[in-house]
Design a protein that fits this description.
Layout (H helix, E strand, L loop, with lengths): L7 E10 L2 E7 L8 E2 L2 E3 L6 H13 L2 E15 L4 E14 L10 E7 L10 H7 L8
Parallel strand pairs: 1-6
Antiparallel strand pairs: 1-2, 1-4, 2-3, 2-7, 5-6
């Protein structure tokens, strides 16, 4: 197996605020046109918590607090030939007005609750919700 065929580690962050969580519509990368959580790749030597804080600030300009580990998913994107292990983090909104800071990879964003999710969902998030996980409980 070549080194670049190994699974990558993604971090998805539930930013909770008033019974809702922040989601983004992906653009120009795998999962184009699907709704996902903000997040990104875990970098070498980085903690999961630091990755979550960094990605949320870079992508949306938001600070988060009270981070805790959620579950993980094993996600194989057959069409794109990608394999990710996605680690989920649940955090509370602290401050900042959410905005699209990376327009090349994010088309839209918004706050959603479990009863009103946008479609289609990004594969890791769809796989997670299929387990019955609810970040608000």
């Amino acid at each position: 197996m070549r080194e670049n065929n190994r699974p990558k580690v993604g971090v998805g962050v539930f930013v909770l605020n008033d019974g809702k969580f922040l989601m983004q519509k992906r653009k120009g990368k795998h999962g184009d046109g699907t709704w996902s959580l903000p997040g990104g790749h875990l970098e070498f030597g980085e903690s999961v918590e630091d990755c979550a804080r960094r990605e949320i600030m870079e992508e949306m300009g938001v600070k988060i607090k009270n981070l805790r580990y959620g579950p993980f998913t094993n996600d194989i994107f057959n069409k794109e030939g990608k394999h990710y292990v996605t680690l989920f983090v649940v955090a509370e909104y602290e401050s900042g007005e959410p905005e699209v800071r990376e327009p090349e990879t994010t088309e839209d964003l918004g706050w959603f609750d479990m009863g009103d999710l946008p479609n289609p969902l990004f594969l890791p998030l769809n796989n997670l919700f299929n387990t019955g996980f609810n970040p608000l409980k």
